[in-house]
Amino acid sequence: MVLSHNDSVKLFRNSAPYINAHRGKTFVLMFGGEAVEDANFANIIQDIALLNSLGVRLILVHGARPQIDQRAIWRKVEPRFSEDVRITDKQTLECVKDAAGSVRSQIEALLTMGLANSPMHGAQIRVCSGNLVVAMPIGVRNGVDFEHTGLVRRVDVTGINDHLDDGSIVLLPPMGYSPTGEVFNLSHEDVATNAVKALKADKLIIFTEKDGLVDETGRLLRNIQLNSLYPMLEQAHLQQEKHSIQTIIDSLEAGVSRCHCVSYGQDGALLQELFTRDGAGSLISQSYYEQIRTATIEDVGGILNLINPLEEKGILVKRSREILEREIEQFTIIERDGMTIACAALYPYLEEQCGELACVATHTDYRGGNRGERLLSAICEQAKLQGLTSIFCLTTVTSHWFQEQGFVRATLDDLPAKKKQLYNFQRNSKVFVLTL
């Protein structure tokens, strides 16, 4: 798809807040050997190079399972597993070192490429790797000796930060080294988890075969909370992603605020996820990505942008900036990445123990996601805390929605006396009441 000049300018301008937000932050990017073999991997490398040029501190953690399996076939080494973990004997370890070295060389070569007329022309990216992960053996579990299969003991935080401070990209393979000079085969999930924890990374980004995490019907789950991840570990349709999900859980529990799952087969998915409001994959956070909160004076502009189109159509009663500033504490908003996408206001009439629900609005791009219902629920909780027993609304075009939420038709006589005096007969609004 070719963008027009205006669309290109708009897209670039809209990405500016994310460029500023990501600059200087530390991201851990995790991808398996399957991603390296995908036809789109060269495009992913170009996008990684772009992130580096924008000042993002990048740690790439790669796997090599399919490459190890292939070399085991070539060497006629029979793969052995226990509890879904590879048993690494001396022959298998040679396959691991060969495969990991090959993948590392491929990634380094792609990041070094700077042909004229290519996206990476003039990038001059440095890639650093080495003995940055200290490992220890798994040992014997349930009578099974895992030999050269290991676990991460320690990540060299100082060494990695030195490279990042120099503007280099750090590459961590699925191997670790012990103080005794041994080499251990590690899972790249274990390496990524420990890198995130040790470096206090700002984000973990995982590349998966699918667009992200999906439900039983295959529908992409765009926004997920941490507490929703635990049952996913047992869901049959997500067993392939089980290790990735556990890595996300461990990272969020360690303090990372956001993790992302994006497709390694979709061109531009990484950039779309990081530099657009709606992203391309799954965003997993400790708390809900869209925050419901009481509005402050800084939100006046966002609310005006939201309600002005509805006021022009006569759906909402017009409010000036001065009125809105004076009444801002009555408003509750839903904020998404700094943008106000929905709002509602509660005006209490304490003598009658009721309140008016007013100025309910949702941005056109975000309708149909139960945001109105979430706002109504928050407003009802506020009303109860104030000792109100019912809330009412006046509407001209959205009566069906209010009825679906449990409101019932009422009359002018059911309104508080002060509100009845201000009723606009020209608008001829319908009255609805919800008992709390």
From TrEMBL:
Keywords: Acyltransferase, Amino-acid biosynthesis, Arginine biosynthesis, Cytoplasm, Transferase. It holds the Pfam family AA_kinase. Its EC number is 2.3.1.1. It is found in: Cytoplasm. It catalyses: L-glutamate + acetyl-CoA = N-acetyl-L-glutamate + CoA + H(+). Pathway: Amino-acid biosynthesis; L-arginine biosynthesis; N(2)-acetyl-L-ornithine from L-glutamate: step 1/4. It comes from the Bacteria. It is an enzyme of class 2 (transferase). Residues 290-429 form the N-acetyltransferase domain. The keyword Metal-binding does not apply. GO terms for molecular function: acyltransferase activity. HAMAP family: N_acetyl_glu_synth. In bacteria which possess the bifunctional enzyme ornithine acetyltransferase/N-acetylglutamate synthase (ArgJ), ArgA fulfills an anaplerotic role. Belongs to the acetyltransferase family. ArgA subfamily. This is Amino-acid acetyltransferase. It comes from Paraglaciecola mesophila. The gene is argA.
